[in-house]
């Protein structure tokens, strides 16, 4: 069941989502060759508490850290590590915050130092996919309008859209209905209504859309070892258009 939020409840969701956004704003200042994803994770853990929020991911179904830190061919759910980031790496950092019983969720892709033109194009197209999807999150539209805009732009850019990891509703739980793939057909799927709150989080791969999971049960990698990028916002469907709750 999709839980529609009232305007008041959407206002109540903003602090959690803005703590996530503030963490990303501060993380962006730290990204450089030589820093480790464990150091970034530890900074975020401290910053969430400083801003009055609660971390969620550490301990969730056994996940070991406060952030998901996914580098290069790791699509999502990567563990922070003590490996220094290197010039040319792509880091996807996913941050979840709980505040006053509400959740916020956003992943951002960061270029480490000087990246290749191919990696730069992948980042650009992925961010555009997210933005084009969000633009279709209007009352009366279908979920397929969101997902088809993402798929069309990714494939026109020569990339593929991950199928096996899903966007999801957000509210007093991190994962609510709808759960959905970022591919689809315009005019198909559930009707979007005012008060829906969900993530738009396309994961776009340089090669195949297929992924594999490491033995740790979490780390998702591209099946061909090529790069992956992701951008994610939590949004609300409103009468005035999509409201980006995790806007930076």
TrEMBL record:
Binding-site residues, substrate: 77, 175
The family this protein is said to belong to: Belongs to the peptidase M24A family. Methionine aminopeptidase type 1 subfamily.
InterPro entries linked: Creatinase/aminopeptidase-like, Pept_M24, Pept_M24_MAP, Pept_M24A_MAP1
CDD domains: MetAP1
Keyword field: Aminopeptidase, Hydrolase, Metal-binding, Protease
PANTHER family: METHIONINE AMINOPEPTIDASE
Source species taxonomy: Bacteria, Bacillati, Bacillota, Bacilli, Bacillales
A GO molecular-function annotation: metalloaminopeptidase activity
The protein's Enzyme Commission number: 3.4.11.18
Organism: Paenibacillus macerans
Descriptive protein name: Methionine aminopeptidase
Taxonomy, superkingdom: Bacteria
Keyword Metal-binding: yes
UniProt binding sites for a divalent metal cation 1: 94, 105, 232
Pfam families in the record: Peptidase_M24 (PF00557)
């Amino acid at each position: 069941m999709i839980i529609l939020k009232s305007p008041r409840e959407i206002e109540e969701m903003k602090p959690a989502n803005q703590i996530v956004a503030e963490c990303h704003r501060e993380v962006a200042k730290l990204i450089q060759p030589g820093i480790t994803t464990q150091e970034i994770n530890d900074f975020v853990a401290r910053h969430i508490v400083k801003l009055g929020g609660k971390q969620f991911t550490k301990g969730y179904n056994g996940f070991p850290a406060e952030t998901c830190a996914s580098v290069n061919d790791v699509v999502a759910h990567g563990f922070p590590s003590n490996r220094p980031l290197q010039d040319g790496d792509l880091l996807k950092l996913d941050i979840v915050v709980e505040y006053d019983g509400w959740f916020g969720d956003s992943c951002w892709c960061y270029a480490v130092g000087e990246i290749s033109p191919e990696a730069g194009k992948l980042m650009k197209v992925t961010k555009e996919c997210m933005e084009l999807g969000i633009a279709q999150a209007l009352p009366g539209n279908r979920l397929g309008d969101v997902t088809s805009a993402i798929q069309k732009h990714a494939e026109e850019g020569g990339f593929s859209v991950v199928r096996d990891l899903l966007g999801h509703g957000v509210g007093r739980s991190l994962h609510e209905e709808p759960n959905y793939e970022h591919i689809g057909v315009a005019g198909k799927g559930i009707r979007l209504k005012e008060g829906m709150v969900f993530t738009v989080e396309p994961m776009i791969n340089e090669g195949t859309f297929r992924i594999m999971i490491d033995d740790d049960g979490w780390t998702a990698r591209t099946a061909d070892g090529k790069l992956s990028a992701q951008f994610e916002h939590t949004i609300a469907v409103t009468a005035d258009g999509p409201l980006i709750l995790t806007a930076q």
